[in-house]
Amino acid sequence: MKVAFSNISGINAAIVSRSDNYWELFWSTLVSAVVENEAPDEVVLTFGLANTSLTKDDFSIEDFTISSLSRDATNKILTLTLTENFDEDTEAEVTFGKTGESYSITNNVVGTKPILISATIENADPDIVVLIYDQVLNESSVPETTDFSITGKTISDVTVTNDTVLITVSEAWSYGDEIAISYTAGTDPIQGAIGGLAADNLTDETVINNISMDTDLATYISGLVTELSAAQLVKVNNFIKNYKAADSLTNLSDAYDVMYYLGNETAESSLRNLVKRTHDATAVNAPTFTPYEGFAGDGISMYIGTNYNPASDTIKYTLNDAAFGAYTRVLSTISSGTIFSYSPGKYLRLNTINSAAGDRVYINADYVTIALVNAAGMWITGRTSSENISYMINKSYSTNTKTSVGLPDAEVTIFKGYTGAYTDGQLSFLFIGKSLTQANMETITDIFEALMDANGKGVIT
Amino acid sequence: MRNYIIISKEQAEAVRGRHGKYSALEPVEFPDGKFAVPERCIDDPEFADIRETLQKYRKEEIIQDITDLNETSKSTKIEKDKYYLSKDYWVVKGLKTATIDMSKVAKITDLKDTILVGKDVETLINGEGKIIK
After folding, report:
1. Residue A227 CA: distances (Å) to CA of A220, A233, A270, A291
2. Contacts of A419 in chain B (CB under 8 A)
3. Given this model, what pLDDT does residue A26 score?
4. Which DSSP state fits A384?
5. What is the pLDDT of residue A420?
6. Cβ neighbours of A285 in B, within 8 Å
């Protein structure tokens, strides 16, 4: 095809004489346009005459972007590099802008580009990202770990098997984690087994997190009228999971009878027992609930009944192997017992007050005095034998002795204490269970404080 | 604000008990034999089943903000028929209007002409001094 132009530069044209004495210019004929399998992102154009002036902008290919143009030594062969690969199904034409003519491109590519079907993390392997492609991959072409990046994780291994790429990280994810992966092809890209076409790079590709929530959490939230937000579920799940891992518990019921996260997102959930679906608490006279902080008593009538009686309901909290604790955001100003259960001579009692009453430690007996700094935060009382008791406030720890007498035979109440007098203050957490070592006490303090901090409500300084 | 609706024993029994899924109402008996329920229960969805009754109480009965009794001041003002929250003696009631030098009061029962204390508390005081056993 020959087309006349009035302004021409370069030599990829022929000036010929016409019989009517007008000079005309004819562009050299495009001999071929080919994409080979070895370079599926390159269109090789062969012209009849050499040229030095044509640029990538003189060509266009529908649905493709030309990123550059290069020449061979003869200046007859031009190579257009594309931003995307051809695959065996590609049909395309190259349009030569100088003439407006289009030429069919001979496609010698074998196979198709691997397309990512899914990116997931499964419950069984929470430390592995699973990329599944639409075809069998070349198992000999295994990307380097450095070809991938995942925020906050160190990638330790990459394997390619069948249609799957497995990316292993050094630390597992948890339920609800948001994950994205990026990939930049290196020397050994992800490529198809047939034809060897490389898969696309990935930029912050969302990885679907199929890790299940902790079983205790699943039981805890089952049947809630008002569901917890996804963000809060993640926080509570992390609390349970991290705590169980730290203290080597399979279930919370391995160590506890009751555990109330009183500062959960809703009053309904805050009154539920995290350990099992019994002993959910009752809010009496509408104690003030503040999401993420907890319940507050008013000193007049408001309290929480746990529906848990140490004498009749205990499994883990026993006479000489017992512990209980509470997290208070606001100390009480009344000393009649923030946490309270009583039979004559037998107490389960905590006075979260900054006075001498706060130094009184009661667990299955009358009190013995242990003076610590009575500040807002985590208060824990423990008994490891018929004589030995311990006390911890915000990880400050001490011990004393007091002979055990028996388990109090009355419901444990919050904000309702001795002689039925009420207390005030604000509580975010209460647990009752078997004895805790000093390390155990520190662990639950740290992990619950992390939960409170996650919502900006922690008070331990 | 600790607003309470002051009601009779019969009115208290009419609303006492479990309500909603996780709540209960337990009107508390004050030293003079009257009962009280928090006014805020009216707006709590858990008490929807007795809301109309509580609204009726609010309309017909006294509502009082129960403030703390200043137990250290040399000039604590007591108002007749007003309830106060004592940190050591729970809820007490003013029997007459007076100004008291609390620093000179050893036991609140010494003010029996001015302040009414609950019978249970009075017994406790007689036995052990203060309620903070």
Report:
1. 11, 9, 12, 14
2. 120-121, 124, 131, 133
3. 55
4. S
5. 78
6. 24-26, 28, 37-38, 41
The C-alpha atoms of residue A393 and residue A445 are separated, in whole angstroms, by 9
Q: What pLDDT shows up at residue A10?
A: 41
Provide the token pair at B52. Answer: 């109309």
- Which residues in chain A are contacts of B4 at CB distance < 8 A? 300-301
CA-CA distance, A324 to A308, in Å (whole number)? 13
- Measured CA to CA, the distance from residue A156 to residue A177 in angstroms comes to 19
Chain A residues with CB-CB distance to B under 8 A? 225, 267-268, 271, 280-286, 288, 298-302, 305, 333-336, 357, 418-422
Categorize the per-residue pLDDT at B68 as very low, low, confident or very high, splitting at 50, 70 and 90. very high
Specify the amino acid at residue A197. Answer: L
Q: Name the percent of chain B in helix, strand, coil, to the closest 5.
A: 35, 30, 35
Distance (Å, rounded) from C-alpha B113 to C-alpha A129? 78
pLDDT in tens, A329-379: 999 999 889 999 999 999 999 999 999 999 999 999 999 999 999 999 999
Residues 6+ apart with CB under 8 A from A373: A393, A394, A396
Residue of B nearest to A289 (CA): B44
Q: Which of helix, strand or coil describes residue A133?
A: strand
| 3-state SS assignment for residue A218 | helix
> Of A274, A282, A312, nearest to A430 (Cα)?
A274
Instruction: Report which of residues A218 and B112 the model is more confident about.
Output: A218
pLDDT tens digits, A221-238: 999 999 999 999 999 999
Q: Do A285 and B90 touch (CB under 8 A)?
A: no
Let me know: does A164 contact A132? Beta carbons within 8 Å. Answer: yes
State the average pLDDT over residues A186-195. Answer: 95
Question: Cβ of A286 and B22 within 8 Å?
Answer: no
Measured between alpha carbons, how far is A363 from A365 in angstroms, rounded to an integer?
5
Read off φ and ψ for residue A310, nearest 5 degrees: -55, -35
Kindly report the average pLDDT of chain A as a whole number: 92
Nearest residue, CB atoms, B66 vs list A280, A282, A300: A300
pLDDT digits (tens, 9 = 90+) for A421-433: 899 999 999 999 9
Residue A50, pLDDT above cutoff 90? no
d(CA A260, CA A280): 8
Distance CA(B109)–CA(A389), nearest Å, equals 37
Q: Which chain A residues are closer than 8 Å to B133 by Cβ? A: 336, 418-419
In sequence order, the 6+-apart residues with CB closer than 8 A to the CB of A208 are: A118, A119, A120, A121
- Say what the pTM is: 0.81
